[in-house]
C-alpha cells in the first residue's frame, strides 16, 4: 500500500545528494557587508537563495587584520570562485556598511570575471535617528 520513494543515488556509488552543483546560475546578486571589523560577501541567485558566502574571518584572518582591504579581497575571491564554476556571468552588487573592504571587494569580484549589471549602496541611514539622552544637570 505504501509507495516506495525513488532514490536519488545509491549507497554503493557513494554519490548521495550530489545534485547540489548541477544548478546553472547565469545571473545573481552579490551582497557585500563591510564593517570596520569584518567583511562578509554573500552570493545569492535572483530569488534570494544563498549560493555561496565567505568572510574575512573564515578565510583565516583574525583580530584587526579582518578589517583590512586585503582580507575583503580574499573573502570576495573565495565567494566568487564557486559561482563562476556554476556559470554566473552577471550580477547585481549590493554594498552595505562603511568598512575599508568595500572597494577591494568590488575589485576582486570584477577581476573574478563577473560583469556588474548594477552597483547599489544599501547602507542604512537614519532619517532622524533615536532620541538623544537628557542633558546632564550640574
TrEMBL record:
<keyword id="KW-0699">rRNA-binding</keyword>
<protein>
    <recommendedName>
        <fullName>Small ribosomal subunit protein uS11c</fullName>
    </recommendedName>
</protein>
<feature type="region of interest" description="Disordered">
    <location>
        <begin position="1"/>
        <end position="24"/>
    </location>
</feature>
<keyword id="KW-0694">RNA-binding</keyword>
<dbReference type="InterPro" id="IPR001971">
    <property type="entry name" value="Ribosomal_uS11"/>
</dbReference>
<keyword id="KW-0934">Plastid</keyword>
<feature type="compositionally biased region" description="Basic residues">
    <location>
        <begin position="9"/>
        <end position="24"/>
    </location>
</feature>
<dbReference type="GO" id="GO:0009507">
    <property type="term" value="C:chloroplast"/>
</dbReference>
<dbReference type="InterPro" id="IPR019981">
    <property type="entry name" value="Ribosomal_uS11_bac-type"/>
</dbReference>
<dbReference type="Pfam" id="PF00411">
    <property type="entry name" value="Ribosomal_S11"/>
</dbReference>
<keyword id="KW-0689">Ribosomal protein</keyword>
<dbReference type="GO" id="GO:1990904">
    <property type="term" value="C:ribonucleoprotein complex"/>
</dbReference>
<dbReference type="GO" id="GO:0005840">
    <property type="term" value="C:ribosome"/>
</dbReference>
<dbReference type="InterPro" id="IPR036967">
    <property type="entry name" value="Ribosomal_uS11_sf"/>
</dbReference>
<dbReference type="GO" id="GO:0019843">
    <property type="term" value="F:rRNA binding"/>
</dbReference>
<comment type="similarity">
    <text>Belongs to the universal ribosomal protein uS11 family.</text>
</comment>
<dbReference type="GO" id="GO:0003735">
    <property type="term" value="F:structural constituent of ribosome"/>
</dbReference>
<keyword id="KW-0687">Ribonucleoprotein</keyword>
<comment type="subunit">
    <text>Part of the 30S ribosomal subunit.</text>
</comment>
<keyword id="KW-0150">Chloroplast</keyword>
<dbReference type="GO" id="GO:0006412">
    <property type="term" value="P:translation"/>
</dbReference>
Amino acid at each position: 500500500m505504501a509507495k516506495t520513494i525513488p532514490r536519488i543515488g545509491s549507497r554503493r556509488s557513494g554519490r548521495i545528494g550530489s545534485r547540489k552543483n548541477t544548478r546553472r546560475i547565469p545571473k545573481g546578486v552579490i551582497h557585500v557587508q563591510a564593517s570596520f571589523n569584518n567583511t562578509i560577501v554573500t552570493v545569492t541567485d535572483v530569488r534570494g537563495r544563498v549560493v555561496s558566502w565567505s568572510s574575512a574571518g573564515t578565510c583565516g584572518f583574525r583580530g584587526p587584520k579582518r578589517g583590512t582591504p586585503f582580507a575583503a579581497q580574499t573573502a570576495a575571491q573565495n565567494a566568487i570562485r564557486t559561482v563562476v564554476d556554476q556559470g554566473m556571468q552577471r550580477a547585481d552588487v549590493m554594498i552595505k556598511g562603511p568598512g575599508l573592504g568595500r572597494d577591494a571587494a568590488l575589485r576582486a569580484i570584477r577581476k573574478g570575471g563577473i560583469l556588474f549589471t548594477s552597483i547599489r549602496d544599501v547602507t542604512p541611514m537614519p532619517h532622524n535617528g533615536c532620541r538623544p539622552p537628557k542633558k546632564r544637570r550640574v
